[in-house]
């Protein structure tokens, strides 16, 4: 097989490189480009151009929170201009172009955040082809104090005389506003003009092409006889990853599902049925409930619980992995992981990974111990792209649109000590809640929903008898990226029904509450 056939996506597809200066919108630039089938990747703004692993067809400098003129502000490697490819600077990126050119950047008299209307003053500019005077989105304090030498103005607004600039000789452009946000009404046209008309990027980034390339890459990487293992939870990411492995190497892929005793009702059975019978994926279910629950005995601290669950996963996985003996007599060399692009972006940000709010359980912890090499077929994809990929691979809608379920499962939804009795209460209440959500046709309107069990007792009255039992908190949220979320507004009648069913059908619950806190300040999970 030729090298070309096993190359990663940025060598197979024309790629726009986004250099990230830390804007909260940077990843949206990639999203927008991919929406019209142009492939893009992001690297930190500190990337040395001489060390780039590929040759981009164009470069976008993103926005960012710094001021180009302040001490310690990040600056692009000047070698970016030697690539001789078109460059587009957005907000900070444009200010960076001006700064390099002659430093004409200063603090504006007034901060400009929100909508503005652009006025296109030079309609011969290819970047603005087909773009009318229309709303754009601004988010800046600083502005160009003069037009950089060698540039012309192509668009302005009432507050920004240099809302769009273009180099007279070279294909280098700057925008003060953010074309990547949907509030910039023609933003996508601008990005498409840049990528397709100016950089001449081929629009061949389609999921079908991606699948073919990835399957070839996996086959070449693994070779004709070696076998691969993967931790599979029944969630979207690991199922899609597993299905791709199945397509690539058939029964030489072994999926392992660990029943940690903290799963939802009937989960193990359902996952086995969908993966094994439905998708033909060779799945081993490992019952490790006792092991997990005995290690959690007496533990109430949320971080300790997460660590114990994460570590126990590793031990179980290691043990099971060692029992698999590949037919060719070799040892298992590769591990499938469902890492997504947002995880990659987080870890490559030049600002470093964000502060730990909670230690998300992560199979990444397996690496050092297991010395396995990773296969991460989804590491270039966003969640909705993974869902699309899943659909193309024939994974049923029901699974593709499943709400995410955290690795530590009910372990972080039983507040305080996790005992089999407490898990049972939380599990039963959760089952009723989700059952009603489905019955009312609401499942796909909600991003995630679950029941948490609060370790407080409350007085109630049932059939003239005093009760003194615990409290269930229901949570349902709407979100696109799980970084921020809002609580879902149910009809009162729906909540009445769920509450009445839970108190009547689940022993040990005296009261049901509904969580009306957004994220932030709360998080999605209670622990
Ligand atoms: N019970 C489990 N058995 C085996 N592996 C698991 C289990 N729970 C989690 N994992 C592993 O941890 C990874 C991360 O879990 P995470 O919940 O983020 O992803 P997912 O379950 O694949 O998808 P989703 O986000 O839709 O739930 C999974 O991809 C899987 O590899
Ligand atoms: O695999 C996981 N392991 C974890 O430890 C974990 N903690 C939270 N979550 C999920 O992440 C999303 C955001 O949750 P939080 O607002 O609670 O951080 C929500 O979708 C949560 O369900 C986890 N997923
Ligand atoms: N969104 C941005 O890129 C802002 C750039 C710079 N920090 C400013 O305030 O103007
Ligand atoms: Mg999951």
From TrEMBL:
<dbReference type="InterPro" id="IPR017926">
    <property type="entry name" value="GATASE"/>
</dbReference>
<keyword id="KW-0658">Purine biosynthesis</keyword>
<dbReference type="GO" id="GO:0005524">
    <property type="term" value="F:ATP binding"/>
</dbReference>
<keyword id="KW-0067">ATP-binding</keyword>
<keyword id="KW-0315">Glutamine amidotransferase</keyword>
<dbReference type="InterPro" id="IPR025777">
    <property type="entry name" value="GMPS_ATP_PPase_dom"/>
</dbReference>
<dbReference type="Pfam" id="PF00958">
    <property type="entry name" value="GMP_synt_C"/>
</dbReference>
<dbReference type="InterPro" id="IPR029062">
    <property type="entry name" value="Class_I_gatase-like"/>
</dbReference>
<feature type="domain" description="GMPS ATP-PPase">
    <location>
        <begin position="205"/>
        <end position="402"/>
    </location>
</feature>
<keyword id="KW-0547">Nucleotide-binding</keyword>
<feature type="binding site">
    <location>
        <begin position="233"/>
        <end position="239"/>
    </location>
    <ligand>
        <name>ATP</name>
    </ligand>
</feature>
<dbReference type="InterPro" id="IPR022310">
    <property type="entry name" value="NAD/GMP_synthase"/>
</dbReference>
<dbReference type="GO" id="GO:0003921">
    <property type="term" value="F:GMP synthase activity"/>
</dbReference>
<dbReference type="InterPro" id="IPR004739">
    <property type="entry name" value="GMP_synth_GATase"/>
</dbReference>
<comment type="function">
    <text>Catalyzes the conversion of xanthine monophosphate (XMP) to GMP in the presence of glutamine and ATP through an adenyl-XMP intermediate.</text>
</comment>
<dbReference type="InterPro" id="IPR014729">
    <property type="entry name" value="Rossmann-like_a/b/a_fold"/>
</dbReference>
<dbReference type="GO" id="GO:0005829">
    <property type="term" value="C:cytosol"/>
</dbReference>
<keyword id="KW-0332">GMP biosynthesis</keyword>
<dbReference type="Pfam" id="PF02540">
    <property type="entry name" value="NAD_synthase"/>
</dbReference>
<dbReference type="InterPro" id="IPR022955">
    <property type="entry name" value="GMP_synthase"/>
</dbReference>
<keyword id="KW-0436">Ligase</keyword>
<comment type="pathway">
    <text>Purine metabolism; GMP biosynthesis; GMP from XMP (L-Gln route): step 1/1.</text>
</comment>
<dbReference type="Pfam" id="PF00117">
    <property type="entry name" value="GATase"/>
</dbReference>
<dbReference type="InterPro" id="IPR001674">
    <property type="entry name" value="GMP_synth_C"/>
</dbReference>
<comment type="subunit">
    <text>Homodimer.</text>
</comment>
<protein>
    <recommendedName>
        <fullName>GMP synthase [glutamine-hydrolyzing]</fullName>
        <ecNumber>6.3.5.2</ecNumber>
    </recommendedName>
</protein>
